[in-house]
Amino acid sequence: MGNCLSHFCSAMGNCLKGSASDDVSLLRGGDGTRESLSSDQIHSSEIFHQQLSESNVPEYYPSPNVRRPLNQLTEEEQIKIAKRMGLIQHLPSGVFDESAKPRECVICMIDFVPGDRVRYMPCMHVYHVKCIDDWLMRSFTCPSCMEPVDVALFLTYETSGHR
Amino acid sequence: MGESSQSSLLLRKQLSELNKNPVEGFSAGLIDDVDIYKWEVLIIGPPETLYEGGFFKAHLFFPKEYPLRPPKMKFITEIWHPNIDKNGDVCISILHEPGDDKWGYEKASERWLPVHTVETILISVISMLADPNDESPANVDAAKEWRENFPEFKKKVAKCIRRSQEE
Ligand SMILES: [Zn+2]
Ligand SMILES: [Zn+2]
Fold first, then answer.
1. Which numbered ligand comes closest to the C-alpha of A124?
2. Cis link prior to A62 (omega < 30° from 0)?
3. Which of A52, A121, B4, B83 would disulfide-bridge B64, Cβ 3.0–4.6 Å?
4. What percent of chain A has pLDDT over 90?
């Protein structure tokens, strides 16, 4: 029981951790002049606004085991989710072509078909965009090698910057 | 394709694969043929462990969001084990959803991943039977006994095995 309970508690505790207040501009469509903001991130926050206006309220996971409709998210949770969306959009995606090595998406266990939209992880694992994006919104790890994606992502940026 | 049709497709695929190519150590099927989300498995007590000779029936309950979320697992056959609570509920880390550390990856390797299947879950459970983890006991009394009074622990397990053979 100890383990189950402590997982739950840590999930709850972390929800309360604040984010820097200047990040609010991200969701409010502010000037977004912070260095870390990219056009992709701003774009994703626009998507976020579009979803907000739909009558059918989408649900999000501020933490992996907490599902809440958008209109019940705290501002901090919204920022966290918007940031996560921005990071996911940074990961390269493309259309599967027959010459590629993996045959199967290990999340849905369905063979890739030419034309499928796939996402390439920094660790070189490949999944359907629809399969991996849902997972990344919950946990920022590659399901095959458990590589934490954001760290790998920033390392890639750094090395490519030095070239 | 909706979330639920995707998960039922994935589970159906696993069921037919397990029927075609059974895996050593367990057998798997549905509790009720019409509900793909509720499985019944029979785990054979792993050889050369305290549980050798036992036949343990357990149920797996998959959420509609599988494989994004893990199933719950419950032993129906009585079993004495530090990581299985007295109601039969299994408490192992791979059946826990990823935690909410900064980006949800701390110790992610031990938590649920969407690549887990009935087969990989049962392989983990079988290795848990062979090798209890007493750092996070679900059955505190069993964990204490396992550490401090092993002969008594063995006796209780042996009793479960005898009962499981009669079922
Ligand atoms: Zn897929
Ligand atoms: Zn990977």
1. 2
2. no
3. B4
4. 18
